[in-house]
Structures are given as structure tokens and as C-alpha cells.
Amino acid sequence: xxxxxxxxxxxxxxxxxxxxxxxxxxxxxxxxxxxxxxxxxxxxxxxxxxxxxxxxxxxxxxxxxxxxxxxxxxxxxxxxxxxxxxxxxxxxxxxxxxxxxxxxxxxxxxxxxxxxxxxxxxxxxxxxxxxxxxxxxxxxxxxxxxxxxxxxxxxxxxxxxxxxxxxxxxxxxxxxxxxxxxxxxxxxxxxxxxxx
Length: 196
Fold this sequence. Notes:
Rossmann fold, 6 helices, 33% helix, 9 strands
């Protein structure tokens, strides 16, 4: 399993993954934080399936642009959230020609290799307005692992918290909260950030 296998895997399992996904937004407290802290309504969902994150944000009045590198996930998001603008784009290198008040990369960023995470983060900065907010999921410590989605192996990687903090500081993001393996959010490791 390599990082480059992620998009072909999601092309294959996207519909089954979406069908099995719990559509109740247990991420709601995080999404409400993003809506509350973002200086405006324009939000970017990086690595999307539409449910439940993009749909919830649209229901709260946000102007959502969602993007994914897998065509199957783009199609699902367009179907599930017709009021969002949904684009096919690779988070490792993208230029949408727009700035956003808030960004979220939930259960997507950690599928990139450590080197690609560093490149992607520069893209995040390039699409963020001053004082924009960002929610990001990573691993709790440095390393690479193989998980599974719908029975297919999927790659995960993480930097150390210290290396993430250095990356955030380099690109002008201020840590608002770090929630490692938080039981409130089903054991996810979550960063809440704000652009300086």
C-alpha cells in the first residue's frame, strides 16, 4: 500500500463507503466552531463525500466549495449536496482561484505521505483569507500505518505534533486547540487552527 494508491481505492469503494457512512454529524461541535470562527461564509471542504460534513455546513447557511481527487467521491458529493460547488482537484497541488473564510480537511489529509502533507499545507495557506479558520485531522504521532475502507487497504501517515506545529508556524497558522485521539470525536486526532 502506497500513498498513490489512495485515489484509485476511493474510486473503487466510494459508493459503498458513502452508503455505510453514518450521516449523523457527530463532528457537529467542530463544524459549529468552524462556522463561528470563520470571518465569513465561504468554506472549503478538502477531501469530500458530501455527507455529513458538506451537507451540514450548507444547511447552516455556508457557501461551500468541496473538492476531492477521486471522481467517484466528487459525483457522490454533487448528488448529496446539490447546493455546494463540487470540484475534482488533488489536495497535493491545487489552485482554485479563490480565497476561503474556513477550510476543513477531515479524514483526508492523513492519507498523504509526510512530504505531500507539507506541500498540501502550502496550498491550504494560498486559499485562506486573513483570519481564516482550519480544522485538520492527523495521527497522534509520527508514523505510517495501513487501515481499511470497505475491506480495501488504505495508507495513513502523520508527522509528530512538534513537526506539525513547526509547519503551522512556518505558514502562519496559530493553534487554537489540539485534541489527540479525542474520545468525544471517536478517537480522532484534531487540530483547530486560525490564520495569523
